[in-house]
């Protein structure tokens, strides 16, 4: 069998958010449409998700959450800089505003991340195979230093660096969303040195910002992967054959972030505040159906794209 051109980790994020999300992710995994999952340990159905991962031998990592719902560290459930006036995390943009204003304690960030890793271990029986941040908080200034140290403490080998080729060539993205993604990429580029100094690894290419929700289609996924292959052509590795060193192509390694599932019931799910609008929308099911489209599977075969987990890179 020829060597793959691309090793593709398709990660189903927000595992544990609700039972309907969990079932959709399992359905995708069993269909060979995703190859990896990322668990929200503070979510309502985290234990159900962890049990499903064990039952179906799903490669699983930690989707560290500092922006939505409740902390898992008991000592941070009141009087913490991580909480707003309602006693929950500040939210995607609120967290960033508090950080920019110098109002977040990095000691509390560290305590909460340690608590989430430990809860992950209790739920799954092992430490995470990879660890990233819900809503990309792990690449933010200051947070990335704490995050990298926690990964190093638990010998978590992989993280996510959300810098996506072709992002600026997506005119259909709303301006506010494009601005947010552009800032995420800026933060991610500045996090590279921090992660590298701690010996943490990540795939060659990240995809998912331009293929999320109703922006996902077979065409958009194919286009994103083609951008990845143009941006990072297969590298050369040297092997010895018959006493001579010969160059062989190394597969490109890629992570595709996805959010498949069935729409959440309005009163069920979330991380302590109920499910958000995205979770209740049809966008989740749309992603599920797109990922399971036979045309996408045919594209993977045609282009020698091998779906795998982080442990297989």
UniProtKB/TrEMBL annotation:
Keywords: Carbohydrate metabolism, Hydrolase, Magnesium, Metal-binding. Its cofactor is Mg(2+). GO terms for biological process: carbohydrate metabolic process. It comes from the Eukaryota. One of its GO terms (molecular function) is metal ion binding. The keyword Metal-binding applies. Pfam families: YdjC (PF04794). CDD domains: YdjC_like_2. Probably catalyzes the deacetylation of acetylated carbohydrates an important step in the degradation of oligosaccharides. Belongs to the YdjC deacetylase family. This is Carbohydrate deacetylase. It comes from Anguilla anguilla.
């Amino acid at each position: 069998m020829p060597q793959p051109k691309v090793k593709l980790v398709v990660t189903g994020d927000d595992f544990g958010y609700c039972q309907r999300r969990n079932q959709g992710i399992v359905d995708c995994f069993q269909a060979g449409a995703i190859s990896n999952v990322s668990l929200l340990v503070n979510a309502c159905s985290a234990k159900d998700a962890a049990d499903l991962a064990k039952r179906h031998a799903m490669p699983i990592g930690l989707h560290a959450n500092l922006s939505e719902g409740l902390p898992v560290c008991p000592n941070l459930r009141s009087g913490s800089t991580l909480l707003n006036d309602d006693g929950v995390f500040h939210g995607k943009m609120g967290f960033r505003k508090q950080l920019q204003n110098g109002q977040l304690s990095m000691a509390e960030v560290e305590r909460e991340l340690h608590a989430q890793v430990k809860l992950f271990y209790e739920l799954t029986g092992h430490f995470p195979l990879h660890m990233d941040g819900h809503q990309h908080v792990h690449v933010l200034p200051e947070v990335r230093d704490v995050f990298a140290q926690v990964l190093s403490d638990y010998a978590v080998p992989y993280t996510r660096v959300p810098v996506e080729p072709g992002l600026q060539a997506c005119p259909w993205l709303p301006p506010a969303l494009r601005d947010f993604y552009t800032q995420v990429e800026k933060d991610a580029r500045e996090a590279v040195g921090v992660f590298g100094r701690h010996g943490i690894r990540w795939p060659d290419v990240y995809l998912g910002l331009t293929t999320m929700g109703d922006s996902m289609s077979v065409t958009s996924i194919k286009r994103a992967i083609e951008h990845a292959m143009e941006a990072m052509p297969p590298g050369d590795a040297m092997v010895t054959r018959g006493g001579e060193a010969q160059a062989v192509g190394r597969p490109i390694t890629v992570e595709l972030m996805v959010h498949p599932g069935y729409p959440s019931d309005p009163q069920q799910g979330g991380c302590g505040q109920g499910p958000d609008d995205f979770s209740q929308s049809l966008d989740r099911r749309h992603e599920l159906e797109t990922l399971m489209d036979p045309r996408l599977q045919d594209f993977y075969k045609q282009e020698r794209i091998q779906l795998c987990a982080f442990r297989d890179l």
